[in-house]
């Protein structure tokens, strides 16, 4: 590819030249609202097309600017914009017009920055066609393999568990959790975030052979008391799906298992990332989740409030969702897409793989009856 943009940090080459590009690239043609691009001017990683940000700006007729103080480049049209934020280790965050982090796939290669073609053009409201007239040499070609996403809920010391607790499949003895995390550590597993998984499945990031995503539903305070310290001890990360309307101490309910407080959420962000499990729709109506039982407009407003709350608490740069009770339908999937959710997890058993919809990712439920040997087998199964 002969039209790449060098995005360098201050210790590297200056970004000034980014501001002086002129004219559309010969490799692109804008037909109505559709961009036509020759395949030979793109690069491919995994199974996705990637484009340099300069070529992206040229074909959109957008303004490309480098913001030196904030170490980021912007691509702006009259309607919207993207910001590509650089970090000292050459990591990149792709921010939308509200400066919220997206799951847009991106990567550096030989000091050049690329963004995934489909993600970027759909964000700017453009369709596209690729003229497949050239074989493209892949960059670090690999086929993403399945990834285990572990699902936890409430943790308790075994000695404190009642007969009722022992029959509750959502309650795990904290001793089991400690043993499982020790197993991951001793066997050199790397814990990943949802963003890591997104980029892995889009071909923009490779992951270690032993990788695992650890998730917790419902935001129980026990996750802060028992899971947080052990995860931090091993340098692990985890993902919390919380009901933003049930955070303690603002919403203490007698007889209900305590949830995270906002203070505990703030203190644990070095380990946990926090996402939506609705604002206050985690209930059943005759066995049916409120997400399905209630009017779709009510669900829309609840999810918007959940996102608003996360954003106001500086937790809302990413948009992922866990379906309450694992229940959903096509209308709910469409609603998530409408509201900008990038990923969602289910309770369907199995590993997540790239053939699944990113809004229907499978997980492995970790129960009290699962032995450490079975835990190992689940991780190593195909």
Describe the 3D structure.
The strands form 6 sheets. Strands 12, 15, 16, 17, 18, 21, 22 and 23 form an 8-stranded parallel beta sheet that branches. Strands 3-4-10-9 form a 4-stranded antiparallel beta sheet. It has 2 domains: about 15-130, 2-Layer Sandwich (Copper Amine Oxidase, Chain A, domain 1); about 150-380, TIM Barrel (Alpha-Beta Barrel). The protein is globular. It is α/β, with parallel strands linked by helices. Helix 4 (about 175-185) packs parallel to helix 6 (about 220-235). The chain has 11 helices and 23 strands. It has helices at about 55-60, 115-125, 165, 175-185, 195-200, 220-235, 260-265, 290-295, 295-310, 330-340, 370-380, and strands at about 30, 35-40, 45, 50, 65, 70-75, 80-85, 90-95, 105-110, 110-115, 125-130, 150, 155, 170-175, 190, 210-215, 240, 270-275, 285, 290, 320, 345-350, 360-365. About 25% of the residues lie in helices and about 25% in strands.
């Amino acid at each position: 590819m002969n039209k790449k943009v060098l995005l360098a940090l201050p210790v590297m080459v200056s970004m000034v030249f980014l501001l002086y590009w002129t004219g559309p690239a010969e490799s692109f043609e804008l037909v109505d609202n559709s961009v036509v691009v020759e395949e030979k001017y793109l690069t491919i990683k995994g199974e996705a097309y990637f484009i340099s940000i300069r070529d992206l700006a040229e074909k959109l007729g957008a303004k490309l600017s480098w913001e030196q103080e904030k170490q980021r480049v912007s691509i702006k049209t009259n309607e919207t914009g993207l910001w590509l934020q650089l970090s000292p280790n050459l990591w990149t965050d792709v921010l939308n017009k509200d400066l919220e982090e997206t799951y847009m796939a991106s990567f550096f290669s030989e000091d050049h920055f690329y963004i995934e073609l489909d993600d970027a053009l759909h964000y700017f409201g453009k369709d596209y066609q690729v003229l497949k007239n050239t074989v493209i040499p892949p960059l670090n070609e690999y086929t993403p393999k399945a990834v285990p996403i572990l699902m936890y809920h409430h943790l308790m010391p075994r000695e404190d568990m009642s007969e009722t607790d022992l029959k509750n499949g959502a309650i795990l003895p904290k001793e089991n959790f400690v043993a499982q995390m020790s197993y991951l550590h001793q066997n050199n597993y790397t814990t990943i975030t949802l963003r890591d998984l997104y980029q892995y499945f889009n071909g923009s990031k490779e992951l270690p052979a032993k990788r695992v995503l650890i998730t917790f539903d419902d935001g129980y305070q026990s996750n802060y008391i028992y899971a947080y310290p052990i995860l931090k001890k091993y340098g692990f990360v985890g993902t919390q799906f919380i009901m933003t309307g049930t955070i303690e101490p603002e919403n203490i309910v007698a007889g209900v298992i305590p949830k995270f407080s906002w203070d505990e959420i703030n203190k644990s962000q070095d380990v946990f990332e926090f996402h939506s499990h609705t604002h206050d729709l985690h209930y059943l109506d005759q066995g049916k989740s409120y997400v399905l039982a209630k009017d779709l407009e009510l669900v829309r407003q609840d999810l918007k409030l959940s996102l608003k709350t996360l954003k106001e608490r500086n937790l809302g740069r990413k948009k992922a969702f866990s379906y309450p009770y694992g229940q959903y339908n096509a209308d709910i999937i469409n609603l998530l897409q409408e509201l900008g959710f990038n990923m969602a997890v289910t309770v369907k058993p199995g590993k997540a793989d790239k053939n699944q919809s990113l809004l229907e990712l499978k997980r492995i439920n970790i129960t009290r009856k699962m032995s450490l040997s079975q835990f190992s087998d689940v991780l190593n199964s195909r």
